[in-house]
Design goal:
CATH topology of the largest domain: Alpha-Beta Plaits
Helix content: 40-55%
Radius of gyration: 27 Å
Strand order of the largest sheet: 11-12-13-16-15-14
Strand content: 15-25%
Shape: globular
Number of helices: 11
Order of helices and strands: EHHHHHEHHEHEEHEEEHEEEEEEEEH
CATH class of the largest domain: Alpha Beta
Number of domains: 3
Mean pLDDT: 78
Number of strands: 16
Largest sheet: 6 strands, antiparallel, barrel
CATH superfamily of the largest domain: Reverse transcriptase/Diguanylate cyclase domain
């Protein structure tokens, strides 16, 4: 066996994962957990049982028993069910402590693990020893895009399948945003492929800065990027996608030596599981169609898949109010439908998708006035020449949102006095 002071790890021959499915078919595989473990390995093997146990206990809260399954896989390439992995890890801990007492010296975690799976619980077949740093780099490269540093398409497929499984268990939605840099061919023609690559790397940085820690960003292919938004309903996904779109629009790309910064835009399509689709491939198709709609509507905007597919139930109710495009005079508004996340109203003119509106709604019986900001999602012409305008709320004070939510809740048909009807 290799000198335990060297930076190596024990491996069994690996099992290649199926594309588009969680590795080894394990529904508990968590990409954030895997990333955390690979980043921590070199330090963990230098810790004693007490220090290592404290760190694992802190991670067990957010990741559960999957922590032990992934830790054993990282160190040995053995894929065990979470409950069995936790039991084995405790036995490895006890064996390491026993070896330390008998040898009266520090025992490397990998030595205890290899001894356990070779002699106690004989699961390793034809074990190999390789350099830990090489192993970590190889694993990282397998899931990272060289140009942007984001996850690659393979990792995206595995993660999306995993997040959909998790959404099924938790009952929380998962949203997907697919982003395409507008007119990128012209950028490549003007700057060359090297300049185009610099633009894509900068876009990746802007997306990272605009995203949340739990979001999974990947280069989907070419000038397209994909963002998996766990536990995110469609309205919130729209807000996040809009933040990413605005970050790109406002940024000056310094890719022309001695010239002015380059200004770009991006179009984004958003779909949500399970409302739009219940399978990974279908969810991707929905987000792609929404992206195509954003392009067809003039680019530089966010489009949601399926205008009739809503994250919130809508209720038919007529409320008086007003609206105005930013900088324009105020005009009267009468709603057709309202929900916790949006408004449908009639208007004499067509308002382009993406238009920002300031609005105010007067609740009946003196319950108050709700001000806010919304963005036009779609406009549909009616037979009488007017247009139905749907807006998503992108800015509303928490107290006003609570007031609107209570009002909408009172409209639900199953509640006493509810007079509403869901679409």
């Amino acid at each position: 066996m290799k000198d335990p002071s060297r930076n190596g790890t024990v491996l069994d021959p690996p099992v290649t994962p199926r594309s588009g499915a969680p590795r080894g078919g394990d529904p508990e595989w968590n990409p954030q957990l895997a990333e955390t473990l690979y980043a921590s390995l070199s330090r963990w093997i230098t810790l004693g049982n007490a220090e290592l146990g404290a760190e694992l206990e802190a991670l067990e809260g957010p990741f559960g028993d999957s922590l032990y399954s992934e830790a054993i896989f990282v160190l040995s390439h053995l894929r065990l069910p979470p409950a069995e992995a936790k039991r084995c890890w405790r036995e490895i801990h006890d064996l390491r402590e026993e070896m330390r007492r008998k040898l009266d010296s520090f025992v490397d975690l990998r030595v205890a693990l290899a001894t356990y799976f070779l002699q106690v619980n004989q699961k390793l077949r034809n074990p190999k020893i390789i350099e830990m740093q090489l192993f970590e780099r190889t694993r990282a490269f397998a899931y990272r895009d060289d140009l942007t540093g984001l996850y690659n398409h393979r990792f995206f497929e595995e993660s999306l399948s995993q997040e959909i499984l998790r959404a099924e268990r938790s009952g929380l939605p998962v949203s997907l945003a697919i982003l395409d840099v507008d007119d990128f061919k012209q950028i490549n023609d003007a700057l060359g492929h090297e300049g185009g690559n610099d633009v894509l790397a900068s876009v990746a940085g802007l997306l990272t800065e605009s995203s949340r820690g739990e979001d999974i960003l990947a280069r989907y292919g070419g000038e397209e990027f994909a963002v998996i938004l766990p536990a995110t309903r469609k309205t919130d996904a729209f807000d996040l996608a809009e933040r990413m779109r605005a970050a790109i629009e406002m940024h000056g790309f310094d890719v022309r030596p001695g010239g002015d910064p380059l200004h770009l835009t991006a179009s984004i399509g958003v779909a949500t599981c399970p409302g739009d689709a219940a399978q990974a491939s279908a969810l991707v198709r929905c987000a792609d169609r929404a992206l195509y709609a954003a392009k067809a509507a003039g680019k530089n905007q966010v489009q949601l898949y399926g205008c009739s597919r809503r994250s919130f139930p809508r209720f038919h109710v007529n409320l008086e109010g007003s609206f105005r495009m930013v900088g324009d005079p105020s005009r009267a508004m009468r709603t057709l439908d309202v929900s916790d996340g949006g408004i449908l109203f009639a208007c004499d003119e067509d308002l382009p998708a993406g238009t920002l509106l300031e609005f105010g709604l007067d609740l009946p019986d003196g319950k108050g006035r709700i001000p806010g900001v919304g963005r036009v999602v779609y406009s549909v012409e009616r037979e009488n020449g007017t247009h139905e305008i749907a807006i998503r709320m992108v800015g509303i004070e928490p107290r006003d949102r609570q007031l609107l939510s209570r009002f909408v809740a009172d409209l639900r048909p199953h509640e006493p006095g509810g007079a509403g009807r869901a679409d």
